[in-house]
Amino acid sequence: MAAQGKGARLGIIAGNGTMPMTVAQAAAAAGRPVYAVAIEGAARQAIEEYPHTWVSFGEIGRVLKVLKREGCEDIVIIGGVQRPKLDELRFDFGALRNLPAILGCLVGGDNSILSGVVEFFEKKGFHVIGAHDVAPELLAAAGPMGKHRPSRKDQTDIDIGIRVIQALGALDVGQAAVVAREHVLAVEAVEGTDALLERCAQLTHRTGGRRGARAGVLVKCAKPGQERRVDLPAIGPETVRRAAEAGLTGIALAAGDVLVAERSDVIVQADREGLFVVGVEVPAKAG
Description:
Elements: E1 10-14, H1 19-29, E2 34-39, E3 52-55, H2 60-69, E4 74-78, H3 93-97, H4 99-105, H5 110-123, E5 127-129, H6 131-134, E6 143-144, H7 152-169, E7 176-180, E8 183-187, H8 193-206, E9 217-220, E10 234-235, H9 237-245, E11 250-254, E12 259-260, H10 263-273, E13 276-280
Parallel strand pairs: 1-2, 1-4, 2-3, 4-5, 9-11, 10-12, 11-13
Antiparallel strand pairs: 6-13, 7-8, 7-9
């Protein structure tokens, strides 16, 4: 479904990273007012540029109250948060009233959790939309984003990475893989892409790899059946920096299924590091 419209205030539940700000900027540029509900310990201080309220992870009642008070019928849930331990949560009264539903959201894999979160907010009368519904220009398009291009060997690694993600994604595992010389070096688990690339960097250093002998591609695409409104994979300039540090040759993104934050900075960083960043068409079933 489409968003409510240009004049309706958009609620943004903001987690970590730059994407909440990017979405807010895109909405504001389109003439749409926004209100941010910023998660303490996750959202960046920069979100305070917009009308906002800070909340702790367990203040579900306050989140609902603020969004309704501000007239936010459409909401975007964007930016990651670390899954809390149940014994560390401090629930407010609104959370306690909805405790069975909330606890149900915390059970299972990422897809199950995120689908539960969407269902929870929609049952409360909100319309959950994706960041790409607000700013479709955030999605990776097919083709290279900078001046560098993948080689034929890189393309083989990309194809393998796509097949790996689709195979493991059916088990709700990861949105990214690193493949070098037709060998799978690493697959993203719950630690996220930054930690995945850090593992690859450590592996390169241990095996005597050098920046002048790059090999390997970071491949990112959505898992089969993924809840795209709240969990599309994303990259930004930091992803490019870490990929370069890991000694990779480039990054491949599923066209139309990966968000690119700070695109101009991504391109500048990739060109500077000598990496390609390319959007690739991903078949519904690979292999």
